[in-house]
Amino acid sequence: MDSKDKKYKLLVVEDDEDSQRFLKLFLKREFVISMSNSGETFYNELENDIFDIILMDVSLRGEKDGLQLTREIKNDDKYKHIPVVALTAHAYQRDRAEALKAGVDYFLTKPVKNETLMDTLKTAIKESLQ
User: Fold this and answer.
1) Domains, the chain, ordered by start
2) How far is 78 from 28, CA to CA, in rounded Å?
């Protein structure tokens, strides 16, 4: 397979089932997708595969939200190289600043245009390979 035809591995961290279905359906053309709906399953996925990028819902329910998970992986030498694209329903400037401080590489607000999401994921991967 030519490198330009390579399907990169994407870990989607999203606890809303409707969003999971949409993201999987939309992104499967371009990526090999694994899904996680909590901090616990997130770490199980990270331990069991090698990912090129992470799409992280900021507002996960449970013990840890998406920003806490991002902080943890960005402080872990094993995972800190993986770009994280944050996806949130909160569009406030302070939310964006907090996400960037946590270590996210890109910040997108729901609802996000399909084209914007795809372009952002591809750009994040391209930049991480340079």
Assistant:
1) 7-128 (3.40.50.2300)
2) 26
As a whole number of angstroms, the distance between CA 38 and CA 56 comes to: 10
Question: Which residues is 9 bridged to in the sheet?
Answer: 32
Q: Which two tokens stand for residue 112?
A: 């996000």
Q: Which residues pair with 84 in a beta bridge?
A: 54
Would you state the pLDDT for residue 3? 52
| DSSP secondary structure code for residue 91 in this structure | -
Q: For the segment 78-92, what is each residue's pLDDT rounded down to a tens digit? A: 999 999 999 988 777
Instruction: Identify whether 83 is preceded by a cis peptide bond (ω within 30 of 0).
Output: no
Backbone angles phi, psi at 53, to 5 degrees: -160, 155
- Write out the two tokens for 102: 């946590």
Q: Record the tokens describing residue 27, joined without a space.
A: 């992104």
